[in-house]
Amino acid sequence: MIFLYGIALLAGIATAVQPGQSTQLARSFGGEPFAAGLVSMLVGTVTMLAVGLATGRLHLPGLQQVAGTPWWAWGGGVLGAGVILSQLFVAQRIGAATFLGLLVTAGVVTSITLDHFGLEGFATHPASLARLVGGGLMIVGVALVALF
To answer: Does the keyword section mention Transmembrane helix (predicted)?
Structure first.
């Protein structure tokens, strides 16, 4: 379990570093954020393919599996593109700490709701007072980071 927490921490670090990389990529491309976003997603796609092939865990779904997929599950790619676009258009303007603070805090507050109602396939975890206070403290924390 500690290994999984370590991976989550590394993903958090990557989330903090990625906006700067995406913005620098856009600058290198003459200020073209959409080209940088496309290249970023292409590199991500190639990485997923390589890791999937290298580990032997890449198994493409059959037509029956594709047809049985909930409609809302197809939105992950759109949301991923939205995150990259927000990095390219917002992060440099508001700063890395404010951007990541808002990103993570919005994610945690939304996740409390997803967990509470068991939405999108997550196991149900009630929005206890402690969880709600934790989300509230994150909101206060990001406000302090943004203001100072």
So the answer is: yes
